[in-house]
Here is the input.
Amino acid sequence: MDVYPTIMELRVGVMNYAWGKIGSNSEVARLIKNDGTVSIDENKPYAELWMGTHPNCPSYIKSSGTALSTVLVNYPKYLGDKSIMTFGLKLPFLFKVLSVRKALSIQVHPDIDRAKKLHKTHPELYKDPNHKPELAIALTNFQAMIGFRPFEEIQNNLKEIFEIQDVIGKDAYLTFLGLVDQQTANIIIPQCFRNLMISSELEIRKALTAFAHRLKSTQNLSAVQANLCTLIIKLYQQFPDDVGCFGPIFLNVINLSPGQAIFLGANEIHAYIEGDCIECMASSDNVIRAGLTPKFKDVETLCSILNYNGAPQKSKLFQPIKENEFTKLFRPPVNDFAVAVTEIPKGKTVTLVIRTVASIALFVKGYGHTHDSIVCSPGTVLFIPANEEVRIMDVTEDITCYIGLANI
Here is the structure.
């Protein structure tokens, strides 16, 4: 059996999905380029960097080439007792970097009971029985849609973009414009949204074409109206005739500054639009899509499980807790994962918070060494066993490190 050091540098994988940022514009490309063994194709998209044991893109020990999953089976103590009791001999989370150039699909992730049912009935579409809550932390300015707007905002948007009335049905449209309370809105919003999502491509094309034509001759839009209309046109250019182009009418559009985060729980509708982020999630690939995608759309399933409760945009920000002078921790309401962010100033020696579970550390900024001489620079990825002490020293440039771990 191979013998491993306590802290192991990982070789990680990249997904070149078409929606990724191109070449060196991608944060994913920037991080893998610093490895020194990878050359970046400036005409190629670099969409996702995966860190973990998910079979679609597993990580390997850099020094030996052994799969991290194999190491964890052979050395279960690396996971920690709490993790083994809860999740067995596997890493419960998947850690990623995303670089988004073109919008990702309007989607939702099922809760664990629904995930099991979908996997049982449609294993070709839903390939595992696990849920997939997610946490996204912005690395650059990051834009996303998440959750339904308060009904007053949807009302105003429907008034401004009246071309949608034939798509959602004139009766439903007029009823919505007359709403005066949230209780009634809770009944009408699901009906209007479902009518939109099941519309034919011909109906959507007609409405989008009419909207785009009117917008060309419209002047004196308010800032709010201009932002909404500009986003719809942007999505229309990326996904012509796709129902998801009208998503911003109903869904919160949130702009994250670097370091801000959102949590995407079960049944929370969302779509990433543009930017770079850290993402951590349960180790699953379950996605129910309904728009902004050429992939299979399971509209009826999505509409049947959505959380339609409207909430203000600001309420979607997910706040961390402060662990110590150098570290803050994002702890979502699930056991599968959390993310710590450690920032180490130049000249400091800092011991990372000792965890009782295994963790994966990604360095995105700065330069230093671990106490056992592993170089810590942008793109360095370390697997840290449970209960292991890690000191970061010889910091010659301010370091920022993101650490994924089980939330137990």
Remarks:
- The mean pLDDT is 93.
- The first strand starts at residue 8 and ends at 11.
- The two ends are 29 Å apart (CA to CA).
